[in-house]
Amino acid sequence: MKKRRRTNETPGHSVRGPPVATTSGRLSGSVVNDEWQTTAVSWEAVAHLFEPWRHRRIWMPFYYDGACAEHLRALGFRHVIHQAEDFFVKVKDARFMKKVDLIWDNPPYTSPETKERVLRALVASGKPFAMLLPISILHVGFVREIVDTDKVQTIIPRRVHVCKTGKEVVPFKYLCWLCHGLELPRDLYLIDDRDCAEVEG
Q1: For residue 181, what pLDDT is reported?
Q2: Is 24 exposed, middle or buried (0-12, 13-18, 19+ CB in 10 A)?
Q3: Cα–Cα distance between 125 and 94 in angstroms, integer?
Q4: What is the pLDDT of residue 192?
Q5: What DSSP string runs through the chain?
Q6: pLDDT confidence of residue 57
Q7: Distance of CA 165 to the CA centre of its chain
Q8: Which of 143, 181, 146, 158 is nearest to 42 (CA)?
Q9: Beta bridge pairs of residue 170
Q10: d(CA 13, CA 19)
Q11: Can you give the pLDDT of all 201 residues of the chain as single tens digits?
């Protein structure tokens, strides 16, 4: 039996995390960007966990308004690459990827097919990565197929603060940083958004 769509759901929009159209994001280079900016406080909340990459090259491939790169630079991550380019083309550019030490960003929350395609490309790149995704990603079958589970670690903020350019900040729950190949001291971190302090779980 075909399930009826709930009346409060908008076709083509995610019901997990920031509401982003399924055709959004600078993923193919041919669609309008409808991502949300992850605000400075949410980058600050996890920055201490990325200390080993502070002086290394970080690629933020999912461009919205450029502010996220400025947030990272303000936190001392000086070598940040963040441009409005086609992710799927750039990730296959061997010359470019040689310059990348870490891929760290908030991708658009599109269809499961797009999430799968993004994750496959990230794993195939061989680079460590951290992606902000709905926490339900940890339950999805294709993720367990794609990633090396021995390399997976998770950072779970209590809330993630996002906004549209020039608009009011909105807090969202049920998101996590899916990390792969970072070799953090622990496999699970719970982050308190009130004072950017780590909360022991």
Answers
A1: 98
A2: buried
A3: 9
A4: 87
A5: -PPPPPTTPPTTB-SSSS--BTT-STTSSSS-----EEPHHHHHHHHGGGGGGTTS-EE----SSSHHHHHHHHTT---EE--S--HHHHTT-HHHHTT-SEEEE------HHHHHHHHHHHHHHT--EEEEEEGGGGG-HHHHHHS-GGGEEEEEES-EEEE-TTS--EEE-SEEEEEES---S-SEEEE-TTTS-EE--
A6: 98
A7: 18
A8: 158
A9: 162
A10: 6
A11: 444 444 443 333 333 334 333 333 333 333 333 467 888 899 999 999 999 999 999 999 999 888 899 999 999 999 999 999 999 999 999 999 999 999 999 987 667 788 899 999 999 999 999 999 999 999 989 899 999 999 999 999 999 988 777 778 778 789 999 999 999 999 999 998 654 444 333
Say which residue the tokens 């380019």 belong to: 85
CA 201/CA 190 separation, integer angstroms: 6
The residue written with tokens 């070598």 in the block is 79
Residue that is written with structure tokens 């959004």 in the block = 24
